[in-house]
Design a protein that fits this description.
Strand order of the largest sheet: 3-7-6-5-4
Pfam families: Kelch_KLHDC2_KLHL20_DRC7
Number of helices: 0
Shape: globular
Protein name: Nitrile-specifier protein 5
Number of domains: 2
Keywords: Iron, Kelch repeat, Repeat
Cofactor: Fe(2+)
Order of helices and strands: EEEEEEEEEEEEEEEEEEEEEEEEEE
CATH superfamily of the largest domain: Kelch-type beta propeller
Number of strands: 26
InterPro entries: Kelch-typ_b-propeller (IPR015915)
Helix content: under 10%
Distance between the termini: 44 Å
Length: about 280
């Protein structure tokens, strides 16, 4: 494991101890406070996993929290997000043992237990590579891949336990999956992603986007973001990135690390994008 310091803009290796998870791909991570939570993935034999681990950043210690029947079914290429204010970590969809999923699970950090939450039903097709974000006090499922690239948006109200399909307007992104997505205030910011899948599936590179958009979750309006900059300061088209919300020089934005290029090369660069977000009138 490595840590990137936003202030000094330097990488440093972490000396992890404890029950270190075995190697895997298609895994997701989310942080609450100083603890990082990691769920699922696919092992070297292409077996779907459902273990939940925690990593304490203050001590550098891994610990297993759940596995087996204690939580969500086995899956990879799912979506995961933390509601740091509420103290929950959410997992949605992904590729399960019997196909794609559209179920929603929540992990109560304080209680240390999983809870299966209401599923969205047939209106929200089972999918992998979806955007999952917390914005405006709600949980949002954005786009994804369900046999084809999707362009629908669904909202889960954590207070009422109700799902709703969201009709969006404005300058909408084209259908896509495996993009970066994070909630910033009442907006969901997305970047990149696969807009045309490869015939090789996870082994190949499809057509990737280099666009950035924001969804204002109040009026459900999309806006294409102006991220014009020189090529040396722009990540370019990519998908399958690691990403997170972050803050640099007092500005809240999107951190993008690595990913897959249109030439199927694995990338190792890191970028920070602080968009100008305006609420609709």
């Amino acid at each position: 494991m490595y840590a990137f310091d936003l202030k000094t803009q330097t990488w440093s290796p972490l000396d992890a101890t404890g029950d270190v998870p075995p190697p895997r791909v298609g895994v997701t991570m989310a942080a609450v406070g100083g603890t990082v939570y990691m769920f699922g993935g696919r092992d070297q034999e292409h077996k779907e996993l459902n273990e939940l681990y925690s990593f304490d950043t203050s001590t550098g210690t891994w610990a297993p929290l759940s596995s087996g029947t204690d939580g969500p079914p086995h899956r990879s290429y799912h979506s995961m997000v933390a509601d740091a204010v509420g103290g929950w970590v959410y997992v949605f969809g992904g590729c399960g043992d019997a196909g794609r999923l559209n179920d929603l699970w929540g992990y109560d950090v304080a209680a240390g237990r999983w809870e299966q939450l209401p599923s969205p039903g047939e209106a929200c097709r089972p999918r992998g590579g979806a955007g999952l974000a917390v914005a405006g006090g709600k949980l949002w499922v954005v786009y994804g891949f369900g046999g084809e690239e999707l362009d629908d948006v669904h909202c889960y109200d954590t207070a009422t336990g109700q799902w709703s399909a969201v009709e969006t307007t404005g300058d909408k992104p084209s259908p896509r999956s495996v993009f970066c997505a994070t909630g910033i205030g009442g907006h969901i910011v997305v970047f990149g992603g696969e807009v045309d899948p490869s015939d090789l599936g996870h082994l190949g590179a499809g057509k990737f986007s280099a666009e950035a958009f924001a969804l204002d979750t109040g009026p459900s309006t999309w806006t294409r973001l102006d991220d014009a900059t020189g090529a040396e300061h722009h990540p370019g088209p990519r998908g399958w990135c690691a990403f997170a919300a972050g803050e640099k020089d007092g500005r809240r934005g999107l951190l993008v690390y690595g990913g897959n290029s249109p030439t199927n090369d694995r990338l190792d660069d890191i970028y920070f994008f602080a968009p100008v977000l305006e609420a609709a009138c």
